[in-house]
Amino acid sequence: MSYKEKILHPFLIAIFPIIYLYSETINEVPPQQMVLPIILMLIFSTVFVIIVRFIFKDWKKSALVVSLSLVLFILYSPVFAYLSGAFIGDFEIGRHRYLVIIFVIPFFTLAYLIYKTKIQLGNVTLILNAVAISLILISSVNIGIYTFEKSFYENDKNIEIVENKTLTPDIYFILLDAYAGEKVLKKYYNFDNSNFINSLRDRGFFVHNESYSNYANTIPSLGSTFNMEYFDVDDKYQRIYSMLPQSTTIKLLDLNGYKIIDFQKHSIAFDIPVVDSTLCKNENNRYTDTRLLDQLLKYTPLSTIIPIVPPEQDMETQLCLFAELPNTKNMFDEPTFVFAHSLVTHSPYYYGPNGEEVNPPSMDYEHYVYSIEFANKNMVKIIDELLDVENHPIIIVLGDHGTVFLNDDITYEEKIITSHQNLYAIYFPDQNYELVEKTSTAINIFRIIFNQFFNADYDLLEDKTFSSNTGEWYDLDDTTHITINNKMN
User: How many domains does the chain fold into?
Assistant: First the structure.
């Protein structure tokens, strides 16, 4: 069979979304997570071609129909997202019942024409093979460019070595994903969180009355916090690194003799190269981990009929995090940095206010509040245990961002408020919060810690918030910032 006769396009089109999605989330998942989805899609496309071959009695026609169906399948969700809420007059076109018809009619029409055609499809096969190969190569080149830029960026980054530190307190960074600020909870969720806030203050914490995340998403928010700097607004999303693995904070702590402890990752698969202990590990390995596959399903029509939820093991991991976090204070003789990223307060919500399982998991407002209550009860117990030592540690309790209040009755500015306003609480052994009081975002957390406890000399950065609600990062200007602050009063 000549090259022109070789049928490659249905198989390449089948795996293209996997490679493309990996190129867009390369900072989140290891490459091994592509293996399982690629194997499944190759099996599916092979079986699909064979089944269609029995109907069409021709391999090239069968492959062409399969490629057509795959392309329409891939395009369905983006088209639906674009048309969602769109009207032609009083007729809402952005609904599944109508969009399915729009996709199904062209598919069967083209499939019929392919079935009846007498045209030799050798050239069509050659062109589709070339297009599919080009798509794969473009994503592969993007992966290669990212890998090169990441290596260059990391090698070029200067890390300040702390001189003659007088204190080396343990540091606990507890990240409560999507934990909104007190004012947002009160105004939009009718939940008074003052008891928890006051319990933190009673224990010596400084809690901002009104703080904002620098970004409204975990990846850039966490990355900027650990790197102690902003990312350029025009940076590509996958370029926003070196994130946690190669961040300034992790490198600096490692160079200064800290033991690094983290917990089993969930949707954000940051692997810290210098970690000394990872707690609450699940049994998944990099090849059987389905996080990339789950993410892929979210961008397909299957997301409307297949519930995409973390496995039971991930739920157990969340409980394990709360149980094991206090035990980290006795793990090493050396100073310790503990990073604990909890998804309990991130949708979907699996727990009631007292830890009772919610089955099936919920996405509603009420259960978000329940998850906050459940997290609060655990945080108070954990903090009391962490402070039950002679040399008190530094404790950071932070919401990496707020939560999107899904209500069409609120304005766009209010949605920005709810997605950015977050919990920001910090405990210093010396109770000196002079520098913390000068900031309202997390960008300076580690700059302040290194200055105050390690004799470093970092300048404090101006507080800024960025939004990506439009798909592109943009800096919220001073007018918007003032409006946000005024709306919360």
Answer: 2
